[in-house]
Amino acid sequence: MGENILEVEGLHVEVDGKRIIEGVDIRLEKGESYVLFGPNGSGKTSLVNAIMGLPEYVVKKGFIAFDGVDVTSKSIDERSKLGMKLAFQLPPEITGVKLRDMLKVCVGLKHKDDLPDEIYGLVEKLKLTEFLDRDINLGFSGGERKRAEVLQMLVMKPKLMLLDEPDSGVDVESLKLIGTLIQEYIESSGASALIITHQGQVLEYIKARRSCVFMKKIVYCLSTPQEIISSIQLHGYSACLDCDRRKPKNE
Ligand SMILES: Nc1ncnc2c1ncn2[C@@H]1O[C@H](COP(=O)(O)OP(=O)(O)OP(=O)(O)O)[C@@H](O)[C@H]1O
Ligand SMILES: [Mg+2]
Predict the structure, then answer these.
(1) Cα separation of 29 and 193, whole Å?
(2) Is 70 among the domain residues?
(3) Fewest CB within a 10 Å sphere: which of 5, 8, 143, 233?
(4) Ligand 1 mean position to 20 CA, how many Å?
(5) Nearest by Cα to 149 from 181, 172, 113
(6) What angle do CA 192, 90, 5 make, to 5 degrees?
(7) Which residues of 63-91 are buried (b: 16+ CB within 10 A; e: fewer)?
(8) What span, in angstroms and rounded, lies between the C-alpha atoms of 178 and 167?
(9) How many domains does the chain have?
(10) What is the pTM of this model?
(11) 73-124, pLDDT tens digit by residue?
């Protein structure tokens, strides 16, 4: 499997008996950031949930290999231990669990242990110090949730970040903060990222060369995210389907 961190081949996924993903192939190299665009309800979140192994997302056909290991039938926990991390589009509220304690769980510390200075540094950078002793996401604003999500992701030092709309509902300053920290982490660690975005704002900070449009399957691949954004703005998503039909088979 060479230098690919992620290989998804022929993936078909069902949720609640409904076929949501109909044949996806993705190859993501180590250190590469790859972008998925696509209209609402086209299956982008379902795809990253299936890659992470959420049990409702049932793989009917195909496989997912992560860092050379077939993880198709492995649990979320096993995938996470191998170095995969999902930052949710809509991070859930977790009543009764403080952000501080979740960070300890993320890095394998015990309840009585103190957080290391390195983590406090990141907490400060993400302007989350006053949130450490609050229940996770309870009463957090949309942007605060996204910052807390990125914090929990970065402390785990993942090899692959599945970033589901890291830029939605985030103000310009928080966007710069999140985007810059993720890109710095990618550059210093050689990690990879699969990024879902509608408008592509986060791509001002996270550098991605390859991208595609996803509509139950990958339908349209151009060389740069900017080309895809312009094409969608000019012609809409349905034009992607037309282009895909005209695309030579070997492209
Ligand atoms: N757990 C579930 N139960 C039932 N239907 C689901 C479930 N998860 C996803 N779906 C359905 O699958 C389809 C794809 O949803 P998904 O959330 O993957 O879309 P998306 O591309 O991420 O959309 P958006 O851009 O709005 O976030 C939708 O029609 C959605 O209602
Ligand atoms: Mg989604």
Answers:
(1) 10
(2) yes
(3) 233
(4) 8
(5) 181
(6) 15
(7) ebbbbeeebbebeeeebbebbbbbbbbeb
(8) 9
(9) 1
(10) 0.94
(11) 999 999 999 999 999 999 999 999 999 999 999 999 998 999 999 999 999 9
Residue 16 Cβ < 6 Å to ligand 1: yes
Residue 122 structural domain? 4-246
Extract the tokens encoding 54: 């959420």
Length of the chain: 251
Q: Counting atoms of ligand 1 from 1, which one is nearest the CA of 42?
A: 21
Say how far apart CA 44 and CA 51 lie, in whole Å.
11
Q: Are 131 and 115 within 8 A, CB to CB?
A: no
Q: What CA–CA distance (Å, rounded) separates 142 from 228?
A: 27
**Distance (Å, whole) CA 121 – CA 236:** 43
Strand partners, 85: 161
Residue 205 contacts by C-beta under 8 Å, 6 or more apart in sequence? 175, 176, 178, 179, 180, 182, 183
- Report residue 126 as tokens: 């993400």
**From the alpha carbon of 56, which atom of ligand 1 is closest?**
1
Q: Which residue type does 184 have?
A: E
Q: Give domain status of residue 251, yes or no.
A: no
